[in-house]
């Protein structure tokens, strides 16, 4: 029932039994269309991904600005993800929220710096005796705003000197962190600061990819928006009862959300699927 409530903004409600049958039939007829969506994702330079837990089920989105596919699994790990048959074939760049599982896939990995910024903010608010976290957050965000300004001027790259300056400042702040961490009085936050420093050192290339290639996004907010509809279902109905329920819901929402992204009437899309039409072939 939540399916129709969400897409109709509360105007349509049906019984749960009718909905289950509807979704099963829809999913069966949507197989080729779902494959077309996967093909679109695999042929784009950047893919955004994240996951949300839904009681016993995890739902992962695979997204770009005009396409999204949702896939379900009941436990984390490479084995479950590879059943989806998306990441194993993908050779572009993956944007995620420091999901280390993703580093096995794609040609490149990029980390959401909005997500990283929250970790800096925790240190800023709780460890007044350090400055490195505040300065690192400032560096990343100011560089992002500089990039936006350049793009508005139809300039699509930093100069070599600008890149070297940014990277040098990043390294200087890591050295500062190493010094400042010695003086943190709280063992709890000292451990957090050291852990974040090590993370920034290890994933420097992934954090700074956006200064080398202006096509690389600064954040993974697209995934957050695409997962919102899954989180709504979880809050209202408590999740999925079985694997079939999770899969059929994901198939339906994949097609409807993609239609909305492409400014196509979702009701016409549903009708076309039931009339055995294959959609989104290109």
UniProtKB/TrEMBL annotation:
Residues 12-247 form the Transposase IS66 central domain. Transmembrane segments: none annotated. It comes from the Bacteria. InterPro entries: Transposase-related, Transposase_IS66_central. This is Transposase. It comes from Candidatus Coprosoma intestinipullorum.
